[in-house]
Amino acid sequence: MTKLLAVLGATGQQGSAVVEYVINDPGLSKEYKVRAVTRTTDSAKAKSLREKNVDVVQGDVKHRESLEKVFSGVHTLFAMTTPAGGERAVEDELNVIKTIADVAVESGIEYIIFSTLPSVTDISGGKYRGVTPFDAKAKGEQYIRGLSIKSSFYCPGSFMENFESQTFLAPQRDPNQADTWTLSRNMSPHTQMPLIDAVGDGGKFVGAILADPAKFEGKKICAATKFYSWSEIASILSKHTGKKVVYKQESNEDFAKSLPPPAAPIFIDYFSYIEDHGYFGPGGEEAVAWAVANARDKLSTFEEFLTAHPFKLS
């Protein structure tokens, strides 16, 4: 019997990756019928999903009544949340996660796959408290683990797409060398970053859970293709853009000057945490190796991602 899979944020990067993978996989498309949940059902992405015979419905994760309607008849839920801002960022996002999880339980949903992240505050022993989106999702994961519902957790690495979407973190033209672009961070060039093609490969990890929920119950998939050092990343960007890209390690103070003021505290703590503890914390390399071994289908390297999605510097 076909099971109904609800996907929150279905037109965003993570949600669309899950929807597209399921509807295009010969086995999963027979096992699951997809309900794509989005706040705006008249967007171009929503229209594209409807053209693929996906059930697209309007839903707002901040409103319990909306979720009660959306979750009716659902067997499995893929849930993700967007970061909140302000002084109550962790509490506000956590409250949204709790509402989603509580309504899922009340609605009789049998299985939740939650998009989580590591707890920066806990792993760093309280040293880095500014990475609120990570801490909120980690607290949400712990809340879900305490509920009377089966669950597993998708924990993605740093998105390859961010080099294009977060322009303030992309290589910048060196004002003193016209033919050189500088990729700057407050980290050593040897620091390792786990990269994932979030849109192209996210569904390959979540699809593994959907194909064998019992195997992954209670487990966390630390999803990435592999770890790349910053010097490797700069070299790959050079090769694919045809420009000279060099990596530069900066002080916290100098790096902060290149960031939008509201985002600076988050990114300073974020990269400092990774420098000290690694993106996933202790055991990250082993966790990624396990995730790669369990992913469905071949994963994209950063080089392959840039070939498929050319990144331009001008």
Characterise the protein shown here:
This protein is of the alpha/beta class. It is 44% helix and 20% strand. The chain has 15 helices and 13 strands. Strands 3-2-1-4-5-6-11 form a 7-stranded parallel sheet, sandwiched between helices. Strands 7-10-12 form a 3-stranded mixed sheet. It is globular. The model has no long low-confidence stretch (mean pLDDT 97). Keywords: NADP. It comes from Exophiala bonariae. One of its GO terms (cellular component) is nucleus. Pfam families: NmrA (PF05368).
Which labels suit this protein?
single chain, 314 residues, alpha/beta, 3-stranded mixed sheet, 15 helices
- Taken from the alpha-carbon principal axes, the silhouette is globular
**Computed Rg:** 20 Å
Instruction: Work out the helicity level.
Output: 40-55%
Structural class: alpha/beta
Q: Count the strands?
A: 13
Average residue-wise pLDDT: 97
The string of secondary-structure elements, in order, is EHHEHEHEHEHHEEHEEEHHEEHEHHHH
Biggest beta-sheet profile: 7 strands, parallel
- Count of DSSP H/I helices: 15
Report strand %. Answer: 15-25%
Q: Write out the strand line-up for the largest beta sheet, numbering strands in chain order.
A: 3-2-1-4-5-6-11
| Unreliable runs | none
| Alpha carbon gap, first and last residue | 53 Å
